[in-house]
Design a protein that fits this description.
alpha/beta; Spore Coat Polysaccharide Biosynthesis Protein SpsA, Chain A; UDP N-Acetylglucosamine Acyltransferase, domain 1; 7-stranded mixed β-sheet; 8 helices; elongated; binds uridine-diphosphate-N-acetylglucosamine; binds calcium ion
């Protein structure tokens, strides 16, 4: 048996009021359809079939080169018609799993349960019981057995009272599916070829129809408008937050955390409110992240303290470091263990050595800074001459006085001291004191001006 996943994604999604096809709207910065594709791959479907129609160009651009069978449904004539377009890629012994490009939160475990529930030659439908089932297809049962699905618009008042609804997600035997699809008609209230009509066909052929239920009804929710999209986003984020807490992180408020990528945490990580994680973030044990931080593609070592309102992008921070408040670590910044970067300090493509400190109002770009260096307040590495970038090297134990400009390329030697307010254009040798500023003058006999009389 081969698993053949068919993802329906042909609809425009008129109610989104968007130029973008519905399935490209994002949950956690990832298009909804990508969530579905990733789940399909996790199930073992290497090359899912993507049934597309509206917005083909945008969809192809967004999906890039990843392995997919692209299946065009030129006209949207119903879910049965959509699946029928995928038939050329379905072989008789396939198990076909139908998923929806706008239903991103279905758990892998739920789909595995559905596939386990599916009888060898039968089919399985993922259903959910809703207090308000309006709009959904209703699951019809006789003596407990599923005998069919009736759509809202075709249902009798009696059938409308059924609370068990069709999620749309089904696992079907390839061979029979092909014969059923060929027999679908569109003589119903919507004039569509309903995939759901194959349930009654299967039943009349004496084929077993099983059901499975998700843990959480949000797993089968789609987004037809931006309100529903926002609800999916919150549900997804809460799920991420719960995972993080179970992995050992303490969240001040699980409702005020956004993960748009992946986060790995060690024990006793503490995360304050309104933190955003993007890309791949790794937090060592005992790390604290203050309020309003944005951390993207970075690794933070054990017991490091990221203070509020800091931004870290593509950087590596060692253990026992202190960052912020209001620090900005730009790509290729490296802070070695025990180093400190304070408020309004920006680093780019710079390594700050062990135990070194840049505590206030500083720009460190294209710099290599050794261990136990003290970078005074207001220090600027002048790394750019308008055309090229140059490196500033500051060796172990050096002391840079406040408000210094280090005009690269320039080197400050081991244990050298740069006097405050210096504009350093030539290297400072090891152990040297360099003062590169205008000398202080004392003007004798000077008098303050007096107000001119009119
Ligand atoms: C469908 C089910 C209904 C179920 C509900 C769950 C049918 C006939 N009905 O109804 O039982 O309760 O989903 O949400 O299957 N699509 C295509 N091509 C088409 C038609 C649809 O790709 O020709 C895609 C749409 O983009 C959408 C999905 O399939 O993502 C569902 O289609 P829609 O017409 O919205 O079905 P529902 O009326 O919601
Ligand atoms: Ca729908």
């Amino acid at each position: 048996m081969a698993l053949n996943v068919v993802i329906l994604a042909a609809g425009k999604g008129t109610r989104m009021k968007s130029d973008l096809p519905k399935v490209l709207h994002k949950v956690a910065e990832r298009p909804m359809v990508q969530h579905v594709i990733d789940t399909a791959r996790a199930l073992g479907a290497d090359k899912p079939q993507l049934v597309y129609g509206y917005g083909a160009g945008a969809l192809q651009t967004a999906m890039g080169e990843q392995p997919l069978h692209w299946v065009l449904q030129a006209e949207q004539l119903g879910t049965g018609h959509a699946v029928a377009q995928a038939v050329p890629n379905i072989t008789d012994d396939d198990t076909v799993l139908v998923l929806y490009g706008d239903v991103p939160l279905t758990r892998l475990e739920t789909l595995q349960q559905l596939l386990v529930a599916k009888p060898a030659n039968g089919l399985a439908v993922l259903t959910v019981n809703l207090a308000n089932p309006t709009g959904y297809g209703r699951i019809m049962r006789e003596n407990g057995h599923v005998v069919g699905i009736v759509e809202q618009k075709d249902a009798t008042p009696e059938q409308l009272k059924i609370n068990e609804v069709n999620s749309g997600i089904m696992a079907l035997p390839g061979k029979q599916l092909k014969s059923w699809l060929a027999k679908l008609s569109n003589s119903n209230a919507q004039g569509e070829y309903y995939l759901t009509d194959i349930i009654a066909m299967a039943h009349s052929e004496g084929i077993d129809i099983a059901t499975a239920q998700p843990q959480d009804p949000m797993e089968v929710e789609g987004a037809n408008n931006r309100l529903q999209l926002a609800a999916l986003e919150r549900a997804y984020q809460l799920r991420q937050a719960e995972k993080l807490m179970l992995a050992g992180a303490n969240l001040r408020d699980p409702a005020r955390l956004d993960i748009r990528g992946t986060v790995e945490v060690g024990n006793d990580v503490m995360i304050d409110i309104n933190v955003i994680f993007e890309g791949k973030v790794v937090l060592g044990k005992g790390v604290t992240v203050g309020a309003n931080c944005i951390l993207k593609d970075c690794t933070i070592g054990a017991n490091t303290d990221i203070k509020p309102n800091s931004m870290i992008d593509n950087a590596t921070v060692g253990s026992d470091c202190s960052v912020g408040p209001y620090a900005r670590l730009r790509p290729e910044s490296v802070m070695l263990d025990d180093s400190h970067v304070g408020n309004f300090v920006e680093m780019k493509k710079t390594t700050l050595g062990k135990g070194s400190k840049a505590n206030h109002l500083t720009y460190l770009g294209d710099a290599v800074i050794g261990d136990k260096v003290n970078v005074g307040a207001g220090t600027i590495t002048c790394n750019y001459d308008g055309a090229n970038k140059f490196v500033t090297t500051i060796k172990n134990g050096a002391f840079i006085g406040s408000n210094s400009s280090l005009v690269a390329p320039v080197t400050v030697g081991v244990n050298a001291t740069v006097g405050a307010g210096s504009v350093l254009t030539r290297d400072a040798a090891d152990g040297e004191l360099v003062v590169a500023r205008a000398k202080q003058r004392h003007i004798e006999g000077w008098q303050r001006p007096l107000k001119i009389k009119k």
